[in-house]
Prior knowledge:
alpha+beta; 2 domains
Amino acid sequence: MENSFDFSQYTQYCSYATISFFVLTILSFILKWGFRFRLVGVTSFMGVVTASIFALSLGLFTPVKIEGALSYHLVYDNGANQAVITVPAPITEKEVDATLRQAADDLFSPGRLGLGGDQLIIRIRSVFHLENGISQPLYLGEVKRSLANRQDENMDVKIFTDNLKKLG
C-alpha cells in the first residue's frame, strides 16, 4: 500500500498555524482581550496537533520486500553503525545478496548514530560444523549502506564466496 501523505508539509503548515496562534495569544494578553484564555487553549491544542503530525511523519515507512531474501535473525546490533545477522546453512550466493539487501532496508533507522563513520555495516553469517560437536561461525558477506539516506542507491554488497563454498 503506497502512502501519498506528505506529513512533512502538513507539519510545516501546522507549525505556521501554531506560531500564528501563539503570537495572537501574546497580543491578546497585551491588549487584555476577554477571550485571551481561550487562545491559550487553542495554541496548546495546535502544539499537540503539530507534534502528533510530526510523529506520524517519522513512523510511516512502507516496508520493502526483496525477492529471494531468506528469513534471518539479528544476533548483534550496537544501535549505531554495526549489525550481524544469521541465516541457516544451505544458502546460495543470490540468497545471500537478497538477504543482505533486505536486512539493509529493515535495519535502517534515522535514529542510528554515526559512531565511527557515516555507514551502516551489516554482516551475514552462518554456522559451519567442522566435526562432531565443533562449530564455527562463518561470515558469508557484508553490506555497507548510508546512515543518512533511506533510499541508498550506492550500497556496497560484498559476498565472501570462499566461505560460501565451505558451507557446501
